[in-house]
Amino acid sequence: MQFRSFNSILDECLAAIQQGATLEECMVRYPAHAERLEPLLTLANRVRSTPPALPRPWPQAAAWQRVRQRATDLRAEPRSVQLSLDYSAWLRPVAITVALLLALFGATGGTVLAAQNSLPDSPLYRVKLATEDVRLWVVFDDVHKAEILIDQSNERMNEILEMNRQDKAVPSNVLSALRSRNERAADILAEHQDETGLTTTLVQQAEAQEGNLVLLFNQVSKTAYTPYTEALAATHNARLPGGQGAAGIHPEELSDGVQHISGVAEKVNENLWNVGGLEVRVDQTTIGQPIENGSAVSFVVGKNSRGQLRALTVSTRPAGPPSGSVVSGQVEQVTDQGIVIAGQFIPITSQTLLTGTIKKGQRVEVKFGKSDSGVVASTVRPVTTPAPADDEQEPPSQFTFEGVIEGDVKKPTNEWKIGGLSFTITPDTAIDASAGQAKSGARVLVEATRQEKQLSAHKITVLASDSPPESAALIGVFDKSRDGVWYVSGLQLVPPERTTEPIPGTLLFVDLARHGGDLEVKSYTRIQAPDDTSLVRLDVTITKLEGAIWTVDFGTVRVSSTSDFSGPEEVVGARAIVWGRRNQNGVLEASFARVLDKTAVVPTPAPASPAPTTAPAGNAGP
Amino acid sequence: MRAAVWTLPLAKSLDKARDVSAREKAAGDMAARAGAPDVLAEWDLVKRAQAFDGAAIEALYQAYYPKVYNYGFLQMGDVQAAEDLASDVMLKMIESINKYHFRGLPFGAWVFRIARNRLIDLHRRRRRRGEVDLSETLSSALASPHALAERALERGQLQVALKHLTDEQRQVIVLKFIEGFDNRSVGKIMARSEGAVKSLQHRALGSLRRLLYHDRV
Asked: Are B29 and B122 members of one domain?
């Protein structure tokens, strides 16, 4: 006897009852399931009989007037735009026709040729897509079609990367095209499971694409967010066994953002893991190695409209150095292979995400990643100077703040209170909880921007620290002093009486004490003068200590007795923020160093529980 | 007799479609597979609307505005928001109607896919603005002993209970049992497979029952 799932039996009964069968007939047919079926079928009948909410007549009539007017406009449009340059309504059919004729007759039309190099912001881009569609129309072999779709998907990703290189927002058209190519290729290959070679190509390509899409979160045009989530979901699902199956990620799971979260994984239940104090759902749609209880993991998670986190990918590689390290400074040299900052060569590979054209003399921020050949640049983006302030609006200001988390952050929330300040958690705020849980009382470092009185957190790092809860610290630019209050990167600080005021524009490290609702300045250190652009900032992990020489992911840096130093004593494995410049001997000399952790942030901590368990639902990928 | 009951009616007569073009016939076949009895008549209406025929557009508007309004009202519980949703979806429907091609997705499912996407955008925007959902507490929706009789649920009762389901469970209840879409169409609207829809409807009915009959399960 063939086994039938209860889902299937219930569905059959629901359909039969809708077609006129009675509940009793269903019970008779499936007596073993009658007890479970009866209440569900009764409820379904009651839901079906619920009277609909009827719209109010006058809003419906008003809306009809708008629709009718729009229909009238649309009816008139084809005639009026035929000779205009508005290509949006008619270019696609024309493009398809032109492309079809040229493709069929082997002609080499200038338009089609020109379109081949067009980017998504070009009017000719539609011709390019249409030409590709035509190519698919004349292919009748499914597998060959999948092969072409995979190539086309690769071309879409290259276009997206080129848009990013030109520092342009990624529009919806190319994202939709990427989604459709990946979906179609995956669908075809799901039907041809013997095509393992092609499936592997698709999966590997989709893996690289997914990584890039996640990094490109901020480069996507505001109006293209829905196509972005659809493209990311389709690209992720193309990596799953069986392609776009029932178990794929739904774009809604990404509707409120995509975040990086790293920390120690603790199993809550079958599909739920606590990572650094945040609950992350891990199931068969999560791609990565199986998770062991107590292991250090890095997640890329999607956040749905309820604020729930679902893991897209999980990496059980150590979350420590070098990934996550950042250097920010002036480019001294640019070559095909990389860039030089503070005398240090940083390799750039084909996997490096470049935003804008990198030029000598430009200030850039480089994030490091790992590759087979060692440490390379993962992303390179220009550091932009905020627009000058006008009377109406303050320019955005970036700062680094250290303080203690107040209140419960475990529940899905978009607002974290840290050191008395409220920070908005943005859709892509990264959370590094390698050193401990992000919970009330934990000391954290926040990289943030202040704009229009709102503080947005870009990255929150839990620190291994025993600083008292009332202490805080700030690295920011001194703006002004007014009525006895200092404004540093827009934050209001209360200085002690008769303290020498810094020159506006000076970058400061400020040691703070919370007193009631105020942040009081205990002491401050000048890091960088307003007109000095020669310093580089390193956000790094100390990997080796030899006297005054610290080896960090970026190379070596000398932290001598003349360097301003703050924080706990340096240890290997601790994270630090260092500002410095190259001296005459070519050595990177720190002018300011702040150690963040009092102990090593061990990349692979000892198991927290006696018997390691493995996430059963984790998908290791094909 | 039983066989007749348990065999789901598939295509209505496709005779009408035999004299139309091959493409339309293919569309008709798919329409038949989609299981919607009046889908051929609607397909005809849609083709006329694609040529901006006023009467056809009005017929589609009159058919779908109330459905989308009801869908929006059950999801958001707000008359004005549901009216805005219905109005937006109708405008989008008419602006994009020429992009609709019958490839196995009935027109109604296409319209509701617009509605669902729009609803997701609305939810996201509301959350970004920090709007708080002031829905009634669940206790007000719990069924009284009288309500356990096999009569229709009160709309308010259903609407409050729906708010406590997950988004996907709520979608499947509304699309399948209120709007009357088949599994295939629900799957298309929600971008899920038919198998996933069957599983979702089971979970959704179970959750709804637990919510409505709270202490009796």
From this structure: yes
Q: Identify all chain B residues contacting A250, using CB atoms and an 8 Å cutoff.
A: 168, 190-192
Ordered by where they begin, the domains of chain A are 6-45 (no CATH), 139-254 (no CATH), 261-319+605-622 (2.40.50.320), 397-528 (2.40.50.320)
- Report DSSP state, residue A266: E
CB-CB neighbors (< 8 A) of B83 in chain A = 55-56, 59-60, 63
Same domain, B128 and B195: no
Give the whole-angstrom CA distance, residue A316 versus residue A319.
8
Quick one: B170 and B182 in the same domain? yes
Which pairs count as long-range contacts for B88-92, CB under 8 Å and 24+ apart, including other chains? Answer: B88/B118, B89/B64, B89/B114, B89/B115, B89/B118, B90/A63, B90/A64, B90/A67, B90/B61, B90/B64, B90/B65, B91/A66, B91/A67, B91/A70, B92/B118
Which of A8, A13, A67 is the best residue to mutate to test the B interface, defined by the most B CB atoms within 10 Å of its own CB?
A: A67
Is B54 a member of any domain?
yes
Note down pLDDT in tens along chain B; length 217 residues: 333 333 322 222 223 223 333 434 444 444 444 344 466 678 778 888 988 888 999 999 999 999 999 999 888 888 888 998 999 999 999 988 887 776 656 789 889 989 998 888 777 776 665 544 434 444 444 444 444 444 456 777 788 888 888 888 999 999 999 888 888 889 888 888 888 899 999 999 999 888 887 634 3
Note down the domain range covering B191: 136-217
Strand partners, A577: A539, A594
pTM score of the predicted model: 0.58
Which sign, positive or negative, has the C-alpha torsion A74, A76, A78, A80?
Answer: negative
Residues B96 and B160 in one domain: no
